[in-house]
Amino acid sequence: MGSPRLVTNTVVHPASHIEIGVTYLKNQANIPLNMKKKEKKTPVKKRSKSKDKKTKPKGTPVLSPVVQTGGRSLVPYDPLQMYLMEIKHYTLLTREEEVELGKLVREKNDQKAAYRLVTSNLRLVVKIAMDFHRYWTKSLLDLIQEGNVGLLQAVQKFDPYRGIKFSYYASFWIKAYMLKFIMENWKMVKIGTTQTQRKLFFNLAKERDKLISQGYEPETRLLAERLDVKEKEVEEMSQRLGSGEISLNAPVGMDGKEVYGSFVPDPGMAIDEALSEKQNRELLLEKLKEYREGLAGKELDIFDNRIMAESPLTLQELGDRYHISRERIRQIQERIIKGIRKWLMEEIPNFEENFSDFIK
Q1: H-type alpha helices, the chain
Q2: CATH number at residue 95
Q3: In DSSP terms, which residues pair with 251 in a beta bridge?
Q4: Which of 150, 185, 220 is the last residue of a domain?
């Protein structure tokens, strides 16, 4: 029959299809095969070395500067404004939500609940920092950072069962951390280490302005009365606030050879004073030993274990030892002390003047 024969079990390799296609293209174009390959490469232009260096790999993101430098430049990058825009996304909490989250933090130490309490009150920290910014003009972000630390502390200490609003409770922790930061960084040398000095630091200038507005002269005495402190403390704080730091190695005057450190008094005792005190102690101990030789019985026991001992016995312990009352032991002790004073005044010249600190 004239029908075509079907060849079975014959496998045709895929490469044969490629060769058939290439042969067909060669016959149609009537050109050599190697020319056909070159024709495909001709549209590709050779690039210079300088252009190849600037070529970025495929898929590399294109980065553009945040601040454009040109005739129409954008507003410069402000981290404070960026922070304020960021915290606006956190919603405020209701009173019920604060109590519920506070219970989770207190009872289960739930970190997600603590996170919500902190983020929802970040705007409160900014508001308080704005109020304190008049004291600290260097960086508002520093105050905000310290206030955030106080906010974290408030979350850990908050007790939701007392019926206090969390924002009200947290404001005290936030203010405390901000005040501590201002106090420690106002100057290189700390100007407020006690409670009285901290009180003067924040209230002295305010009270002085108040007196001036009322028509009074802000004298030291009047300021001390208003602030309930001593006049000397007001004078010291005024000097600290009004003067700057001076290095101890800085010369005194323009052409001075002396430095400020040479005028600082030595806190230790002078050599002659230390030697004199040592001699007085030795003389006093020698006379006390002589006085001890004249004592006996209860008086000697009270002298050794009550008057001269580093860890003296109590009146009750000595009374139980001799079966007498505490009051009787105290009377004997007072008689011995009076006898010691009389003996030393007779044996040591100028005893009242030189040994007033040894015998009370």
Answers
A1: 14-29, 33-41, 49-54, 79-87, 95-108, 111-119, 122-132, 140-157, 166-185, 195-213, 220-227, 231-242, 271-292, 298-302, 315-322, 326-347, 351-354
A2: 1.20.120.1810
A3: 259
A4: 185
Range of the domain at 200: 195-242
Q: Convert the pLDDT of each residue in 215-255 to its tens digit.
A: 888 888 888 888 888 888 888 777 666 655 566 677 777 67
Is residue 143 within 8 A of residue 132, CB to CB? The reply is: yes
pLDDT, one tens digit per residue, over 96-105 is: 999 999 999 9
At what angle are helices 271-292 and 326-347 packed, to 10 degrees?
Answer: 120
Do 119 and 204 reside in the same domain of the chain?
no
Q: Is residue 24 part of a domain?
A: no
- Helix/strand/coil for 105: helix
Residue 245 CB neighbours (<10 A): 8
Compute the distance between CA of residue 118 and CA of residue 94 in angstroms, rounded to an integer.
14
Q: How far apart are CA 218 and CA 202, in angstroms?
A: 16
pTM of the model: 0.46
Separation CA 284–CA 31 (nearest Å): 129
Q: Is residue 253 part of a domain?
A: no
Write 290-293 long-range contacts (CB < 8 A, 24+).
290/347, 291/339, 291/340, 291/343, 291/344
- Let me know whether 297 and 328 are in one domain: yes
Looking at the domain assignment, is residue 145 inside a domain? yes
Backbone angles phi, psi at 259, to 5 degrees: -110, 165
Mind listing the pLDDT tens digit for each residue in 103-117?
999 999 999 999 999
Structure tokens that stand for 2 in this block: 């004239």
Claim to verify: residue 104 and residue 150 sit in the same structural domain: yes
Whole-number Å distance between alpha carbons of 214 and 209:
9
